[in-house]
Amino acid sequence: MDVPKLFDLTGKVALVTGGSRGLGREMVLAFAQQGADVVVSSRKQEACEALAREVEETTGRKALAVACHVARWEDCNALLERAYGELGRIDVLVNNAGMSPLYPSLEEITEELWDKVLGVNLKGPFRLSSVVGARMAEGEGGSIINVSSVAAVQPSPIEVPYGAAKAGLHALTKGMARSFAPKVRVNCIMPGPFLTDISKAWDMEAFERSARLSIPLGRGGQPHEIVGAALYLASEASSYTTGAVIKIDGGVAYAAG
């Protein structure tokens, strides 16, 4: 068995939403380093273009930058039209875009906020996965990777809509794994707290104290620590894995999804 070849993505095309920063950025870079051409998508075109240039300069792979608000199906359709039109195929789809805005109390959550959270975290992944999964199933197959959160199984009081959306993403993962089988694998990564750029707004002293008590590994994750699971699920290394929810959380969540 040629183990390195199992993780080789040469000749593949990977599309990552929420791909210009944080965990998405790490996955984009990892996929390109393993030989894939990439589609970098987020709401800000400039951020997508900056990472696309970095990919092309450092790896020599093609990188397409496409702004997309995944809660809008017309944006999703336009994103896929660009990706298929310019790169010809999508072999790996990563539904990574997400948001969890703060709110004062549950009863003060507005319909607009609820719709926004469900739109980005669940509605968009459903549309993208439905279209891409169908095309993969009709063609050479592929891999769809959803990115949820430990909030899907243990939502805190400040992330109830977000947790509901991510729990829905788990259901989507399991249902679509059966819908698009046997040629398409659909899996989910469930991250815990990662020290991405969003953590700059945290009280880090308080977080580190809490992490030592509540996270078995005693710390938050570093962004690059998502890469192993992402490469596994994107590549032939996971050829017999579908419908799975993989915890990458330092052990903080007891439930597996």
Fraction of residues in β-strands: 5-15%
CATH superfamily: NAD(P)-binding Rossmann-like Domain
Output the number of helix runs.
8
Compute the number of strand runs: 7
CATH topology: Rossmann fold
**Assigned CATH architecture:** 3-Layer(aba) Sandwich
Mean pLDDT across the residues is 96
Give an overview in words.
- The chain is α/β, with parallel strands linked by helices and 257 residues long.
- It has a single domain (3-247), classed as Rossmann fold, CATH 3.40.50.720.
- Helix content is 44%, strand content 15%.
- It contains eight helices and seven strands, in the order αβαβαβαβαβαβααβ.
- It has a seven-stranded parallel beta sheet with strand order 3-2-1-4-5-6-7, sandwiched between helices.
- Helix 5 links the parallel strand 4 (92-95) and strand 5.
- Helix 4 (73-87) runs parallel beside helix 5 and helix 5 runs parallel beside helix 6.
- The longest helix has 28 residues, at 111-138.
- It is globular, with a radius of gyration of 17 Å.
- The mean pLDDT is 96.
What would a concise description of this structure say?
Helix content is 44%, strand content 15%.
Helices and strands, with pairings:
Layout: H1 3-6, E1 13-17, H2 22-33, E2 37-42, H3 45-59, E3 63-67, H4 73-87, E4 92-95, H5 111-138, E5 142-147, H6 160-179, E6 184-191, H7 204-214, H8 227-234, E7 245-248
Parallel strand pairs: 1-2, 1-4, 2-3, 4-5, 5-6, 6-7
Protein traits:
257 residues; Rossmann fold; 7 strands; globular; single chain
